[in-house]
């Protein structure tokens, strides 16, 4: 505490990202990064950016990137918003659409940053319990007071809700914004983007950090009707005129121009995920059916925090959440085939 | 208006940055960009970043950049905060240190984003009128209720307050945070950084966008006592874990390692500013004594908005603010010698 802090600052419990250790080289399966490098076209585009022009501000309207996204998803430019990672966009969206006097809903087990945004913008929250199998009871999101946030696939459970099942949530919240956070949608799910023309209350948020291997470049985007995009722009332009730098803008455009690479690398991640899932089940793990680039696992006879430590000791970093209901689970990002073989081998030594 | 917007969103009047025209090539003297490219060491550092590693998140603690800044200013790492441009840091600072129930003070003529942040975080404001010559009546900032923001040099006036005169403001606000926004300090002013050890309520905010020619890379930083830095981190970590991408981090570190280039280019800007000032006075303009990389000018017989249009017509973009007290002034960024010669030549044709 400090006498200089606002009451808000003192009240916050900030988000803690997965560790980025500097002490040694790990097999890093803890922050859902893509094991493959970005498209070679991104590399070329970055080389093509004039270093002399870094003296100039980037385009505050991010026109080139917005048009590339609009083309990719068959939307209009005014249905697209871009930002410094999807986290920044989610923060803007909480400010733009949610209010301190109307409770929003999200799952009890989901991306833990949502609760932090709610604190930051002082938005009351009703947390909807997932069922025993971590399925989402969609009807519990009907008639929300202030809005809805659903991660699909969910994190850290990896579970996917078929997109047509989301229609009912949108229909039962006609005056509230429903945010579908699709950070992991490209690993086997179908996007809710196709519903945007039918539901003006739908905001779909995606990121280039996972399926486009650009976590280090910080690019997220949101798609929705023009009023929602204008709302996001009002907040953004009251905060920072230039959230994406010249290199990020160029890299993002180039990534969208190499659809073949995107499909190939995502297919590899999916294939490795399925192999990993089968191996884990052979070792006695319960593994959720995943549509993400990670798996969520538990073992009937092994304590998760001890497994986490034993893996770490063997140079494999995974994510352990010391939270109610999921403190016997581990979230394991999908790496290369070689990394996952090493991970399985380490587990065999531990549980074998 | 939209039924989906929060009351906050509807209430905002967002900031409008200087235009970044795409229609033709202008002599661009409207957004205070540096006319010289960034240091060659920045270019080398950017080439050295592993493109493959862009798949990985950047260091959320920005350790390398923070240490480089700490070394440069002879501070400790925990006295430094970095962000996506100084605008983002100012936004975080308003949230971290100012409150909806305590009025803060800043000048009636100053960086117009301050008023926008105050709206965004619903902080009441008492605007302190500058005197007729646009000098800052510092005693009017004593005993503020909620805090103080002073741009030094001020924008758009270009006027500099000798740093030792700021001590009295800090001493008369012992329980309030005093933000000194030094976006333009490197063009001839002395930084308030030297006061940090004496005043725990002082936050100094700087940027690499101007004097380090990195507007396109988005790097700002704040310096102050540990409690203030921790407050900023609490807000940042409740908003976005990774605000600086891998390329920005590498470029920022490299810029700080080339002090000679920094000093040489700033000296050139200052020299060109003094030449421009003398020429403008010959043409009958009133020119404020500037310690920034821009000049603030008015002409007794020429309407500023007409001058703005006439310059634009001749391919020279400057900044005109259609606001009370300054609607007969133009803010003109300092370009290269050649650009300023062209600017003076255009003015000769217009006013001559």
Automatic annotation (TrEMBL), chains A, B:
Q: Which reaction does it catalyse?
A: L-histidinol phosphate + 2-oxoglutarate = 3-(imidazol-4-yl)-2-oxopropyl phosphate + L-glutamate
Gene Ontology molecular function: histidinol-phosphate transaminase activity; pyridoxal phosphate binding
What InterPro entries does the annotation carry?
Aminotrans_II_pyridoxalP_BS, Aminotransferase_I/II_large, HisP_aminotrans, HistidinolP_aminotransfase, PyrdxlP-dep_Trfase, PyrdxlP-dep_Trfase_major, PyrdxlP-dep_Trfase_small
Question: What PROSITE patterns does the entry give?
Answer: AA_TRANSFER_CLASS_2
Keyword Amino-acid biosynthesis appears in the UniProt entry = yes
Among the GO biological process terms of this entry, one is:
L-histidine biosynthetic process
**Is Amino-acid biosynthesis included in the keywords of this UniProt record?**
yes
Q: Which cofactor does it need?
A: pyridoxal 5'-phosphate
- Show where the Aminotransferase class I/classII large domain sits: 25-347
Question: What's this protein's family per the entry?
Answer: Belongs to the class-II pyridoxal-phosphate-dependent aminotransferase family. Histidinol-phosphate aminotransferase subfamily.
Q: How does it assemble?
A: Homodimer.
Annotated protein name in UniProt: Histidinol-phosphate aminotransferase
Q: What is the lineage of its organism?
A: Bacteria, Bacillati, Bacillota, Bacilli, Bacillales
């Amino acid at each position: 505490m400090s006498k200089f802090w606002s009451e808000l600052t003192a009240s916050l419990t900030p988000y803690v990202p997965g560790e980025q250790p500097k002490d040694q080289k790990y097999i890093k399966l803890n922050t859902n990064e893509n094991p493959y490098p970005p498209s070679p076209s991104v590399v070329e585009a970055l080389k093509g950016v004039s270093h002399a022009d870094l003296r100039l501000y980037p385009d505050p309207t991010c026109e080139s990137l917005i048009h590339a996204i609009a083309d990719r998803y068959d939307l209009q430019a005014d249905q697209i918003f871009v930002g410094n990672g999807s986290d920044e966009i989610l923060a803007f969206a909480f400010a733009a659409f949610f209010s301190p006097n109307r409770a929003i809903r999200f799952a009890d087990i989901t991306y833990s940053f949502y609760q932090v945004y709610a604190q930051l913008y002082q938005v009351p929250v009703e947390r909807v319990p997932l069922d025993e199998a971590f399925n989402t009871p969609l009807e519990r999101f009907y008639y929300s007071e202030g809005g809805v946030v659903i991660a699909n696939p969910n994190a850290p459970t990896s579970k996917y809700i078929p997109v047509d099942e989301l229609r009912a949530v949108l229909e039962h919240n006609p005056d509230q914004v429903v945010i579908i956070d699709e950070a992991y949608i490209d690993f086997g799910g179908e996007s809710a983007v196709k519903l945007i023309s039918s539901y003006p209350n739908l905001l779909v948020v995606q990121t280039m950090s996972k399926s486009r291997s650009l976590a280090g470049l910080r690019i997220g985007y949101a798609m929705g009707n023009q009023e929602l995009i204008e709302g996001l722009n009002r907040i953004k332009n009251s905060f920072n005129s230039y959230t994406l730098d010249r290199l990020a803008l160029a890299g993002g455009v180039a990534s969208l121009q190499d659809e073949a690479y995107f499909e190939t690398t995502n297919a590899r991640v999916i294939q490795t995920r399925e192999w990993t899932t089968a191996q884990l089940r052979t070792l006695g793990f319960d593994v959720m059916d995943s549509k993400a680039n990670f798996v969520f696992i538990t073992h009937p006879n092994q304590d998760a925090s001890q497994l986490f430590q034993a893996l770490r000791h063997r140079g494999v970093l995974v994510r352990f959440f010391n939270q109610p209901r999921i403190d016997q689970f581990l979230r394991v990002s999908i790496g290369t085939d070689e990394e996952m073989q090493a991970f399985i081998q380490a587990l065999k030594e531990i549980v074998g």
